[in-house]
Write a structure and sequence with these properties.
Length: 209
């Protein structure tokens, strides 16, 4: 029997493979931050997360070319996996796990990582990372089999902004403050107020893109 993965809606990953991907990320993350070698980041990360973390490792290497053997290793446990059914490539899944890193309230934070790969021969790499205050993450909707459901689109979705337009709409809001798509909060009007305050500091100039 031939299964056409470009047409069939199949789970993006199995639980065992997802656990291996998370362990691979954790090992690589610790190695890159211990050796401060930016050449190691592309093996575990891609996209925006790679750009951010690799820049940090490069900067740290400039200060500590000998590495940082005292780097406290990241530990992730109690992992949960949210897996969608997808056709074709790339494929994605979300792993969230309790870390040994402290959140703003001093308690251990859960790390939410989006993993992706573009083909069966590629390794899973993390492309997005987030934490949530009090570990209160939005609940992801799943179907009867436990697989993640797609975010609805179209006029009847009830969403304030279509998913494909969210990044641009949010960036435009932060730049101009115009629009009614976003509710007041620390990541909207309060963030704009903080940026305005920081932008007028004596002897400093901050810009955002």
């Amino acid at each position: 029997m031939t299964v056409h993965g470009e047409r069939e809606m199949l789970p993006a990953v199995g639980k065992a493979e997802g656990a291996k991907a998370l362990a691979h990320f954790t090992d690589g993350y610790n190695k890159a931050n211990r050796q401060l070698d930016p050449a190691l980041n592309p093996a575990i990360e891609a996209g925006a997360l790679l750009a951010i973390d690799q820049a940090g490792v490069k900067a740290a290497h400039a200060l500590r070319p000998q590495g940082n053997p005292a780097f406290p290793p990241l530990e992730l446990k109690d992992a949960h996996f949210t897996v969608p059914k997808q056709a074709g490539w790339p494929k994605y899944f979300v792993a969230d796990a309790l870390s040994n890193r402290k959140g703003p309230d001093g308690s251990p934070s859960r790390w939410f990582l989006v993993f992706s790969r573009n083909g069966i021969d590629e390794k899973w790499r993390a492309v997005y990372f987030a934490t949530f205050d009090g570990n209160k993450a939005p609940e992801l909707k799943t179907d009867a089999d436990g697989y993640a459901e797609a975010v609805p689109a179209g006029g009847g979705s009830g969403l304030a902004v279509a998913p494909g337009k969210l990044s641009r709409t949010y960036a435009d809001y932060l730049n101009t403050g115009k629009g009614d798509a976003f509710a007041p909060g620390k990541n909207t009007d309060k963030l704009r107020a903080l940026r305005a305050k920081q932008a007028t500091q004596v002897g400093a100039r901050l810009q955002w893109e």
